[in-house]
Amino acid sequence: MALRDPLSTEEIARRLSQLSGWEKSPDREEIHKTFYLDYYTAVRAINDVMNPARELEHHPDIDLRWETLHFSLTTYSAGQKITELDFLLVEQIESVLARYTRGAA
Could you tell me if 34 and 45 are in contact, meaning their C-beta atoms sit under 8 angstroms apart? Predict the structure, then answer.
């Protein structure tokens, strides 16, 4: 299976069950998670996520608010489907954000 091949509903559910806080949107083909940290720390975290995102040629949707940082992932180059590429970026996001947060929901 190629990195940009859409994953089955069952595979997505299986993979999400192994992750803390990541969920599939009920109305879109995307997975998402919100992290809670102060604004300027979130800006640094976003910058650190961009290097692995660029290497994976992935374009995560990022929403930065007062004390929340929200990532939504879908593979645009696969027609906005959830693919292995999304889960590879999840691993990178989790690694980066672990340096900035102790608890995330």
Answer: no
pLDDT in tens, 64-82: 999 999 999 999 999 999 9
Domain count of the fold of the chain: 1
In a domain, 72, yes or no: yes
Encoded amino acid at 55, one letter: E
N-to-C CA span, the chain: 31
Whole-structure pTM value: 0.93
CB 97 within 8 A of CB 45: yes
> 31 by DSSP, 3-state: which?
strand
Query: Quick check: is 65 in a domain?
Result: yes
